[in-house]
Design the sequence.
């Protein structure tokens, strides 16, 4: 099950269509900005309309063992680590990808998918400009000890 959490400064990125040989492609398919969130700390916000079922982008980071991921997550309130398999995890805490600030919601507008070791985000419905992007983290390194702040009517209360 993917595990993730997020927070930090205000930044906006825009997907660039052209590629330069030897430079990795920008994983963001839609413009996303980072700014203060009503849910928690910083959040990822749609800077342009995002149609339902479209890939929003990805988060990249350091590939580490699950054991190291759990060691790094221990005692942290803000975790930017996603387990991509039973043995590997991605630590996005040093990543420049704005989707690393995607907060949890019990009523999300996006989903997180692990595909070929990549952490991808997809719109579950049409998302409007300025709307905060959110996913349901499911099982997390917080192990039910962190209070959920999403404010959704169906909020489970804990992460």
Sequence:
């Amino acid at each position: 099950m993917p595990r993730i959490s997020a927070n930090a400064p205000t930044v906006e990125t825009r997907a660039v269509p052209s590629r330069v040989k030897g430079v990795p492609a920008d994983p963001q398919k839609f413009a996303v900005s980072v700014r203060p969130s009503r849910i928690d700390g910083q959040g990822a916000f749609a800077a342009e309309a995002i149609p339902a079922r479209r890939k929003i982008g990805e988060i990249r980071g350091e590939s580490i063992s699950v054991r190291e991921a759990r060691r790094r997550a221990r005692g942290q309130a803000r975790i930017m680590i996603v387990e991509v398999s039973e043995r590997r995890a991605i630590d996005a805490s040093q990543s420049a990808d704005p989707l690393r600030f995607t907060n949890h919601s019990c009523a999300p507008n996006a989903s997180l998918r692990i595909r070929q070791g990549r952490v991808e985000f997809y719109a579950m419905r049409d998302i409007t400009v300025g709307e905060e992007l959110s996913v349901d983290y499911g099982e997390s390194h917080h192990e039910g000890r962190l209070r959920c702040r999403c404010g959704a009517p169906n909020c489970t209360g804990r992460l």
